[in-house]
TrEMBL record:
This is MFS transporter. PANTHER family: BLR1237 PROTEIN (PTHR42928:SF5), TRICARBOXYLATE-BINDING PROTEIN (PTHR42928). Pfam families: TctC. CDD domains: PBP2_Bug_TTT. Keywords: Signal. The keyword Signal applies.
Amino acid sequence: MKQSLIRIALCGAALLPITMPGAAQTPYPNKLINIVVPFPAAGTTDSIARIVGDKLRTRVHQSVIIDNKPGAGGNIGAAAVARAAPDGYTLFASPPGPLTINFNLYKNISYDARKFVPITTIANMPNVLVVGPSVKARTLQELIDYARANPGKLSFASQGNGTTSHLTTLYLENQLGIKMVHVPYRGSAPALSDLMAGTVDLMFDNLTTTLPFHQSKRVRILASATKERVATIADVPTMHEAGVRNFESSTWVTLAAPAGTPATVVQMLAREVSDIVKMPDVISQFATLGADPVGSTPEATAAMLREETARWKTVINAAQITLD
């Protein structure tokens, strides 16, 4: 009987809400949670944040809103979160730029990405190398051979200066000792449009964006920048299989919080989001976006961010690029 009472007490304790530091010991959450997305609505990061935010609302019984704060490559949204109170009510859903690239790239930046508290990586989207219909190369090796024999003849599109798309191609140039002409665009849509028209030759972009065009044969994916083949394009080799060793690049969405956010809140949010991304309907919704659910621990997320930061810092320094 005594053991039964102990088990009941422990179960009850597990259901108690988290309390925030302070005299009132207010349970968390007890008000609206604001998730800042540093890019416009309807993009992949925004879509993923809204899927998770909708589920989180029902699980914690509080309103969850998505607050789009675009501009300056994600720096405006990041700075707003960095200035927010570290109480768990302002969170940051970010792709790679603001958390692992921008502070090594921009001359003037008003926040330190290394001070954000990692919560979890929500989803991951492989980056792939895509060529337009005018490119004769049918394999990555054929493309590399042409690039080496014809320096500066191939052009590559990107989503803009300093984006993952841009840096991944610089990464490839560094690895192979080749040189191509960069043509920056304002996002994937105009870049892909010119790629299909033959105005530019190739680009790296995430699978979410490129898959429909690959399937309709308007572009060709030559390789994925992943450790293993991607199930939805199982016939496409990885960069490693195609001869470019240890080459990885992905676009992910990570949830983070301002510096000083209590560990109890961070751990609670990590558990909730990890559970959310395992839900069958969420997995299905992510699949339509070409996104793989992750749900990592805060510790694993922090390790991933350090690895990504080191990778892109090396690329940025080697290319000697800076942005105002």
